Amino acid sequence: MNNSSVAIDAQDADPSEASARQRCEALQEEFFSDRALVIAANRAPVTFERTEDGGLQFQRGGGGLVTALIGLCRYTDATWIACAQSEADAAWRAGNVEVVEGGDVRVQFLSPEPSAYEGYYNVIANPLLWFLQHSMWNVPLAPVIDRTTWQAWEEGYVAVNRLFAEAIAAQVRATSRPTLVMLQDYHLYLAARFLREMLQPRERPTVLHFTHIPWPGPEYWRILPPAMRQAILDGLCAVDVLGFQTSEDGLNFIRTCESHLPRAHVKFEPGRVWYRNHATHVRDFPISIDVEALKRTAASQEVTGYWFEIRDLVADRQLIVRIDRTEPSKNIVRGFQAFEEMLELHPEHRERVKFLALLVPSRMGVDEYQDYLDDLMAAAGHVNARFGTSEWEPARVLVGENYPRAVAALQLYDVLLVNSIADGMNLVAKEGPVVNQRHGVLVLSERTGARQQLGPGALVISPCDVYATAEALHQALVMPLDERQERAQRLRWLIEREDITAWLCRQLETVAELNL
Ligand code: GDG
After folding, report:
1. pLDDT digits (tens, 9 = 90+) for 85-111
2. pLDDT of 8
């Protein structure tokens, strides 16, 4: 941390936020004074690589989730179980890693057979579940659930979930303290049931599962054959506290149980499913960002370098920014179509605005994603061919992994476009307002989880409505300064009062309040 950022943080600090943070730290300390922790996720918080002399060294993964969860290892014995992503990960197998000052976490890698991992990850989790939960299947044609899908389910998804459960069970048995198990996301829907079956009632840990992506209503789950969807619901109903990004996702889960899980008794208020003699409490814990870490990054020299680069690229024009993985659910093609429509409908913006899309390559091995990259490049090319001049390139697409450049762009936008067709939360929508320097306006899809909190400060659009998106872009570009200031301030306040620590603490509070 450099000195200037400390000064900024101290000046900006709201005393009520500081005390919320202190309360949260006290809660974590008390909660874990007599509990151990096991986190299970597809990916570990660190990745290993071979050094020149054949040893192993690790690098910490980025993102608020890793920061928040590994922060817990300061308070208790923590183990993080994940699938190995490389030969070096697999060689590490298990051992303690010092991930934060004064805290280490035991990182344990599972190494499923390559064919099992392929089925679990590349056939079932992505695409089958990801596409289903983001309403991305073109149902008249896909998915086609054939013998290979069933094989991937049985020998991949089911098998890898069982492997996770075995590793968690072994860890729970190895400690004499009660354990909290935190399962992450759609890769691990079945693990809690296996775990329950493997352990005696007195050995059982408290299990929390958090789903990072949307949970659609029961109608959509009919895409899956009954045996698959029932196994998923049966697995999740072995969890004690089930967390979703929004209250709507939680309600959809309860409705899905009501429709598709025979013998489940559901209660919408306060959110409970009673099934096989066990209560699953359903809550929403909207995920957020590590505000302080983001501000520190924004104040770094590297970001400043990119800040000047982008400012030179944009010159005195207004700037529309979007930052996404090259992921069809982010709705990038319609974003360019809306920009084109806006230039058509409101010619006064021609030559006076630039659309900068910073895109991180994602799942390039999957045909649909490769095709999507081609489609979005064509959509951007179309705008440029139609409206570009020798002096002005309307849209610029930069594809590559570059987080500091993304943060610099967030500082400089006049309009931030987030128009996903479905998105669990969307963290870019939360990062932008915290670091932006121009009272920029957020144009936000109503189908992002972020809408639940940020709706009041944003211009909310329906993601398929290219015309309304075009009008929202125009409205954002011409909005008077005082309204922009008010909206930007409101967004910042909404985000900073509930950062990633609040996400974590609300989960721990829920477990404590329920006496689990
Ligand atoms: C899933 C859910 C949910 C941007 N450029 C780079 C880079 N970024 C950062 C962003 C942001 C993150 O990546 C993307 O997070 P999102 O939330 O926008 O999207 P998903 O990746 O789809 O995340 C989502 C989230 O899980 C958490 O629960 O919000 O709905 O889909 O922080 O600033 N990161 C790196 N290089 C870049 O160039 N490493």
Report:
1. 999 999 999 999 998 877 899 999 999
2. 33
The one-letter code for the residue type at 194 is F
Choice among 57-61, 332-336, 338-342, 445-449 with the minimum mean pLDDT: 57-61
What distance in angstroms lies between residue 204's CA and the mean position of ligand 1's atoms? Answer: 34
Ligand 1 atom with the shortest distance to the CA of 450: 29
Instruction: Give ligand 1 pocket residues (Cβ under 6 A).
Output: 62, 212-213, 287, 323, 325, 360, 401-403, 406, 423-428, 431
Q: What spacing in Å lies between the alpha carbon of 425 and ligand 1's midpoint?
A: 10
Which residue's C-alpha comes closest to atom 10 of ligand 1? Answer: 428
Beta-strand ranges (E) seen in 133-240 are: 179-184, 206-210
Q: What gap in Å lies between CA 463 and CA 328, rounded to an integer?
A: 12
Residue 337 has pLDDT above 70, yes or no: yes
Answer whether residue 400 shows pLDDT above 90: yes
Tell me how crowded residue 113 is: count the other CB atoms within 10 A of its CB.
13
> What six digits make up the tokens of 392?
């002005």
Residues in the chain: 516
Q: Which residues of 431-452 are buried (b: 16+ CB within 10 A; e: fewer)?
A: bbbbbbeebbbbbbbebbbbbb
Report the pLDDT averaged over residues 505-512: 97
Q: Whose CA is nearest to atom 14 of ligand 1?
A: 427
**What confidence score (pLDDT) does residue 14 get?**
58
Q: How far is CA 251 from CA 215, 255, 284, 463, in A?
A: 9, 6, 9, 22
**With 90 as the cut, is the pLDDT of residue 130 above it?**
yes
Kindly provide the residue ranges of all beta strands, DSSP E only, lying in 127-210, ordered along the sequence. Answer: 179-184, 206-210
